[in-house]
Design brief:
- The complex is a heterodimer of chains A (about 150) and B (about 300).
- With about 150 residues, chain A is of the alpha+beta class.
- Chain A has a single domain, classed as Jelly Rolls, CATH 2.60.120.
- Chain A is about 20% helix and about 40% strand.
- In chain A, a hairpin with a 5-residue loop joins strand 5 and strand 6.
- The longest helix of chain A has 27 residues.
- Chain A is globular.
- Chain A starts with a helix and ends with a strand.
- Chain B has about 300 residues and is mainly alpha-helical.
- The radius of gyration of chain B is 21 Å and the shape is globular.
- Chain B starts with 10 loop residues before the first helix and ends with a helix.
- Chains A and B meet through helix 1, strand 1, strand 2, strand 3 and strand 7 of A and helix 1, strand 1, helix 2, helix 6 and helix 8 of B.
Chain lengths: ~150, ~300
């Protein structure tokens, strides 16, 4: 039985690290990313993922007519600027933050309700780093609206 | 510490188990059931083949649902809220998760109409649901105290409500209980739909702003279906899928047409307007069917 102890320890370590990363992600979203929404009201939804360089996440959401929204996309790695774009059902790109200095937020309102897709991507960094090191971190997508 | 893994015949099994368990905690990962099923991606916005590591489907939160009802010109009707005496009925994880969403939608609706005491009472009901689900850090006595201390400050109240919901669903996702987080979201969404359909009553559907909001929920129903489908192996989710399929059958009778979207930037306000028009063909008869179906589902959720 003793011989399994290292493996059980490894199992515990991996699950603990995963849980802690996830918890840190929530903490980051709550304490840092949410402030990007001010003065909009955070809707209360939470979407965050651990992404590495070059990886993407997608989010589908319905936005409603005559409402004003703010999308905030943030990374826990402060040096990382996240790319995001907003695409409609006809695959038209309505917003691309690469055309806006990689802005972390976008404010918009709608004349008609629409399903939109938000695609976020962690660009490959040019920063100097040890060979084979892949940077990864928490990326949060949050929404605010005006009362 | 260095482990010599080669000495163990069971190494692949144990390491495999470790990674499986670890990946479950991250929630929403492709490997844990959010991968898009290409067979279902035949239309609308879901058509593209996904290259994403993670895919999220976002429903209107309880706060957003309540805000949508209010902004459509609705009035406040306390009789529509799920009665507090029902709290003690909810003893299963499914019923507690559903009614966590229901009660947070109710308190959001009450708070937007400045119903301070009702907001407090319903936060306490939501707290009981969260406690029953073992959610330890979302709603505690401090939350109730903060609400009481700021009962006349709507901004802080809305912030507390949004944080409560975020913490509750995040806790469930982090603890490998994604299906319960989904159930809470669906419970809250159905409650918003119930309040809205009841507020319309028998009024004509033409040029009715609340009816338009209800019709627009057809777009969010697509997200509900995707979310549930991602968790359909869970028996509690399977029973909810049946209810939502009944609802979808009614919504399928409604067609929404939308024109091309043109983004127009306002350089002064820095707000982009997505210009487009849309129309729908909802009839009085279909709306009545919709209202009845929503009522039945909501009764199943709350009784």
């Amino acid at each position: 039985m003793k011989k399994y102890i290292p493996y059980l320890a490894l199992l515990f370590l991996i699950t603990s690290v995963s849980y802690n990363v996830s918890a840190q992600c929530k903490g980051f979203a709550k304490k840092i990313c949410k402030t990007e929404l001010v003065p909009y009201i955070h809707d209360g939804n939470y979407h965050a993922a651990i992404l590495s360089e070059g990886e993407e996440a997608e989010l589908y959401k319905t936005f409603y007519s005559n409402q004003q929204y703010r999308i905030a996309v943030c990374s826990s790695d402060s040096a990382s600027q996240i790319e995001f774009k907003v695409i409609d059902a006809n695959r038209n790109v309505l917003y691309n933050n690469r055309e806006h200095n990689l802005s972390r937020t976008w404010d918009f309102k709608l004349e008609a309700s629409q399903q939109l897709k938000i695609v976020v991507k962690v660009p490959v960094s040019n920063r100097k780093k040890p060979d084979a090191e892949i940077l990864s971190g928490c990326v949060a997508i949050m929404f605010g609206f005006k009362d | 510490m260095i482990f010599n893994l080669r000495n163990f015949k069971t190494r692949p099994l144990i390491i495999g188990m470790a990674f499986m368990i670890a990946s479950c905690g991250s929630g929403g990962n492709k490997n844990t059931g959010v991968k898009i099923d290409s067979a279902e991606l035949q239309k609308d916005i879901f058509t593209d083949i996904s290259h994403a590591k993670q895919v999220f489907y976002s429903l209107p939160s309880p706060l957003e649902s309540a805000m949508l009802i209010k902004s459509a010109g609705a009035v406040y009707n306390e009789k529509l809220l799920n009665v507090l005496i029902n709290v003690k009925r909810y003893t299963t994880n499914k019923s507690m998760a559903l009614n966590l969403g229901v009660y947070i939608t109710d308190l959001s609706y009450a708070s937007l109409f400045d119903q301070a005491q009702t907001t407090l009472k319903y936060m306490d009901a939501a707290k009981k649901m969260a406690e029953g689900l073992g959610i330890t850090d979302a709603i505690d006595q401090n939350t109730i105290n903060r609400l009481e201390e700021n009962i006349n400050n709507r901004d802080i109240i809305l912030d507390i409500i949004s944080e409560t919901f975020m913490s509750s669903t995040a806790f469930l996702k982090e603890n490998d209980r994604q299906p319960l987080a989904t159930i809470a979201l669906v419970g809250g969404w159905v409650e918003g739909l119930y309040i809205a359909t009841q507020l319309v009553g028998d009024a004509p559907v033409e040029d009715n702003k609340i009816v338009q909001r209800i019709v627009d929920q057809k777009l969010s129903l697509d997200m509900v279906v995707k979310l549930l489908d991602n968790n359909k192996a869970n028996p509690d989710i399977a029973s909810i899928i049946k209810s939502i399929t009944d609802l979808k059958n009614i919504y399928d009778k409604i067609t929404i047409k939308s024109s091309k979207i043109s983004p127009v930037n306002d350089e002064k306000t820095k707000v982009t307007t997505l210009k487009s028009t849309s129309s729908s063909n909802v009839t009085q008869e279909v709306f009545t069917q919709l209202k009845q179906t929503v009522k039945t589902i909501r009764s199943n959720f709350t009784l």
